[in-house]
Each structure stands twice: as C-alpha cells, then as structure tokens.
Amino acid sequence: MLRAGAATLDITPPLGTKMPGLFHERRASEIHDPLFVRAFCVERDGAAVAVAVCDLIGVKRTYLDRAKARIAREADLAGDRVLISCTHTHTGAETGEDAYTEGLVGRIADAVRLARSRLEPAEVGWARAMEDRLVFNRRYRMADGSVRTNPGIGNPDAREPAGPVDPEVGLLGLRRPGGQTLGLLANYSLHYVGAGDSERQISADYFGYFSRIVQQMRGETFVAALSNGACGDINNIDVKGGLRPDNRNYQHTERVAARVAAAALWAWNEMPFVGDAPVGGAMEEVALSRRPVSDADVARAREVQARKEGTMAERGFARRVLRTAELPEKISTCVQALRVGDLGIVGIPGELFAELGLEIKRRSPFRQTCVIELANDSVGYLPTRRAFEEGGYEAESSPFTPGVGEMLVEIAIDLLNRLHNT
After folding, report:
1. Less packed terminus of the chain by CB within 10 Å, N or C?
2. Rounded distance between C-alpha atoms, residue 299 and residue 313, angstroms
C-alpha cells in the first residue's frame, strides 16, 4: 500500500538580500509574494522517495548536500532518494556562505521531514497535457548564418528557431483514497516570466502564481509546485509574434501561470489513480570537464566587465570566463532518477537544453517521464554539442566542454533503465 505526504515552508529572504539573475547587482527592496520550499514524499513498504522544489534561481550542491545530510539523519531518507530542485526565478535570493543560506538548508530539510512525517494512505496518479502557446526557443538562426540568443522581437534578420521546444505539462498527483488532494507536482519547460512592477521585488514568479491558481481552479487547498523542465534555451518571448506583453503589474506572469494551471487541470481530470505502485531512486556521480581558459580570454573578459556594456553574448562570455577560471578541471556533480509507478523523474544539475530533455523522454522506458533541471546542484548551462559549435549566449556562458549535455542524457537513461528493471 502507498502512503504520501506533502509540506510547504516559507523561505522568503529579508529585505536587502542580494538577488541574482541579471548582469548588475540588485538588492531586495520589496516583497511582492513569498518564496516557498514545497516537498512531496511517497512511500511503499518502507521505501520512500521525496522531491522538494525551491523558489530560487539555483543552489550549489554544497548547500543542498547539507540539507540532504540532515534529511538522512532526521527523516531516514538517503540522498539518492531525495531530489531538491530550484524553479529558476530571477527574483529570488542569492545563496552562499551566509545566514540566509544556513537557514535555507534547515528549511529544506524540515519541509522534507514534515512531508515524511505526514505520510498517510494514498493513491498516486500521473498524466500530461500540452500547452504550446507559451514556450519559444530563444536561439535563432540569423540571415547571415549565425545563431543568436534573444535577437529581439520583430528582428527582420531572425529566420527560424535553432532548436525545439517541449510544451508538455507533466503531473504527479497525490490524494487520499478516492478523495481529497494531498499534493500536485507539475513540470513545465519554461524559463522565468520576467519581473513585474520592479526588478527589486522578491517574487516566486509564475511558479508561485501556478501554485495559487491551480488550487483555486480545483477548489481545494493542497501543496502544489511547478518544477522547471529542460529549458536552458527556452523562454516566453515570441520573436516573430509582435510586441512583448505588458507585465508591469505581473498580469502577464499571472496569465502564463493560468494557462499552465489550466493544462494541468485538463490532464488531472483524466488522471487514473492507483493505490499501489513501485517506488525507487538512483543517483550517479559525474565529473564534468571544464573548458580551458587562456590568459587572452581572461584579459578580454575583464575588459568587457570593466566597460559594463556589450552584447548579451559578450557579457555571457565575460561572466563564463571569469567564473570558469576559478573552477577545477573536473566539476563533480550528480544525475538522479526517481520512480513512482510508471512515472520516471530525472534530476539534472544545470540548465539543460530542451532538445536533450526531449531525448531523455523519448528513450525513457517509463510510460511518462519528467525532467527536472537545477536538481541537486546549479552548474550552469548544459547545451547540445551542436549549440557549442553554433555559439550564442548559452554556449558562451557554459563552463563545460562540448558533449557534456549528451553525456548526462546517457547517464539519465541508464538510471531510468535500472529503476525500470527493479
């Protein structure tokens, strides 16, 4: 028999906290809406798995491993059974060796512990729907044959997207037998949907709106989280579609969330639930090769940084070079897979390109698969090998050697196959 539980804890930072995600320093001056960590736990015959989703841009493995160590001690859940991810909101808090992050580690651990302590007899279901009106590949082939990221709405030289999108809204539903909803974990491959009134307002972005709206649509109160899928090259800007929507009062953020929530509800109402299903988890350590950094590249990067201007690709190059120069030649991270019935969940440690996420889904042995990025780590962009050849912001910003994305796909497929065969 299955048991399930869910919990939510506030992780809103204090005013004055640094906010990552842009090319200039910002500090929070207002709080538009709170940030949360939302945790889900499913258990069968004493074997449990958990997923936690944080309203943050990304958190390094160092800190998430600390949370997992506490979870192992206090909730009796090993690290390979706990997936901790971030939504990638650009209006959250910066993390590091500070008091906020120290408290965050405890809040994540407490959320998972609470979800585990609330286990009760449950049914689980999985389903999916499509919402293709919101996602756009932000890398474009230009008239001169180059590939450019975010070429600008209406740019006459932008010919066609350089890659695909993944419009699938994936769901894992938890409910009491035949009755009340306990939790909903959703998955959608879309970068954040911009700040509203002020870039200095703390906000969970459309991920937070989704949680509120889907509960309103359902007419119930439960733990609802929207995890981010493989969206390293995906955003909500329609280059060919005309003017960018007005988002001064978060109205566009809200309607994006509403469309995703509506797709989730559509799938939910067709979702079959079961009272028994296999549960499992697996993880593999991986060493990612760092790009070589020359003295000339460092000098150029410092020059770009000093003049505080330049194209998106130039600024991405400068940030990547200076950060990469500080990294070891091999970056240790991990890939994870969980199983709940015929749903496979893959945790990828960075911003994976949509094409690679689609490849994982295509080759997965499970009936349905969700790919959650920024899981258990935040290592940066994970482009395709072709994207490294084409260039553009993501490839310039990635600290890794070409082929890293394809390698992670192979590891993910191997983990899924292992879980499927046990």
Report:
1. C
2. 16
Instruction: Give the amino acid at 305.
Output: Q
Contact 37, 111 (CB under 8 A): yes
Return the domain boundaries, the chain. 2-283+331-420, 291-326
Burial category of 271 from C-beta neighbours within 10 Å (exposed 0-12, middle 13-18, buried 19 and up): middle
Question: Which CA distances in Å does 336 have to 12, 277, 298, 352, 371?
Answer: 27, 20, 34, 14, 10
Cα–Cα distance, 252 to 245 (Å, whole number)? 7
Write the secondary structure of the chain as one string of H (helix), E (strand) and C (coil).
Answer: CEEEEEEEEECCCCCCCECCCCCCCCECCEECCCCEEEEEEEEECCEEEEEEEECCCCCCHHHHHHHHHHHHHHHCCCHHHEEEEECCCCCCCCCCCCHHHHHHHHHHHHHHHHHHHCCEECEEEEEEEECCCCCEECEEEECCCCEEECCCCCCCCEEEECCCCCCEEEEEEEECCCCCEEEEEEEECCCCCCCCCCCCEECCHHHHHHHHHHHHHHCCCCEEEEEECCCCCEECCCCCCCCCCCCCCCHHHHHHHHHHHHHHHHHHCCCCEECCCCEEEEEEEEEEEECCCCHHHHHHHHHHHHHCCCCHHHHHHHHHHHHHCCCCCEEEEEEEEEEECCEEEEECCCEECHHHHHHHHHHCCCCEEEEECCECCCCCEECCHHHHHHCCHHHHHCCECCCHHHHHHHHHHHHHHHHHCC
Tokens of 347: 């945790």
Q: For strand 139-142 and strand 47-54, is the pairing parallel, antiparallel, or unpaired?
A: unpaired
Q: Provide the residue count of the chain.
A: 422
User: How confident is the model over 171-205, as pLDDT tens digits?
Assistant: 999 999 989 999 999 999 999 897 765 678 999 99
pLDDT digits (tens, 9 = 90+) for 258-268: 999 999 999 99
Bridge partners, 202 (sequence order)? 31
| C-alpha span between 271 and 61 (Å, rounded) | 34
Is residue 369 pLDDT above 80, yes or no? yes
Q: Is the model's pTM score more than 0.90?
A: yes
